[in-house]
Amino acid sequence: MDTPIDALGTCTRLAALLGRADHLLARAEDGRPTEFGLDRRLAPDMFSLAEQVVVLADSLIGSAALLTGHSASTVREAAWVFNRGAAEGLGELPVTLAAARHRLLAAHSAVIDMARDSPRPASQRADAEVVVARPGHVRRFRLAAFVHDYALPNAYFHLTMIHALLRQAGVVIGKADYEGPRPYTLD
User: Fold this and answer.
1) What is the top-level taxon of the source organism (predicted)?
2) 14 neighbors 6 (Cβ within 8 angstroms)
């Protein structure tokens, strides 16, 4: 039998990822003009820094909504977890670092609030079905696959892109800024 998925623990991880992204943008704010280039891209066909922030924020809200039992009728992002298509589907993009950080912090609060007010139990069956739906498109997952093979890898991808774009812009950040506090002690 599959090990149950700790949905609320996963939400804690999602919130931590949003915190890491905010930390990276805070480092970018140090000594930078307000109109820092959020339109920068690693390649012409990739999302800009602003789009990476929006996708990370909204997708983690949507993932938390699906994990905690909040529906698309109450949480808009639940219907738009990932792969919304063209950049036009992202809505209004932040134009300043402060606005981008605000978007991440709002997502962090939303994820924490949904976990606290979850109508579902903290531990859920790994083979439970998760449905990600948007108009004209439905994806069905087993909960374990949704968490481990879809939601978390996508979140880490967008966090990595934010880190890479900031490094490309000359922001002095490193691996420790990406990873956060050490999960171990040194002897």
Assistant:
1) Bacteria
2) no
* Phi, psi (deg, nearest 5) at residue 134: -145, 165
Give the pLDDT confidence of 59-75 residue by residue, as tens digits: 899 899 889 988 665 66
Residue 146 forms part of a structural domain: yes
**Alpha-carbon span 23 to 32, nearest angstrom:** 15
H/E stretch holding 140: strand 137-142
Pairing state between β 129-134 and 137-142: antiparallel
Quick check: is 42 in a domain? yes
Least confident of 87-91, 115-119, 167-171: 87-91
Q: How does pLDDT run across 95-149, given as a tens digit for each residue?
A: 999 999 999 999 999 999 999 988 888 888 999 998 877 767 788 999 999 999 9
Instruction: Specify the number of domains making up the chain.
Output: 1
> How far is 104 from 115, CA to CA, in rounded Å?
17
pTM: 0.90
Give the domain range for residue 162.
5-179
Report yes or no on 79 lying in a domain: yes
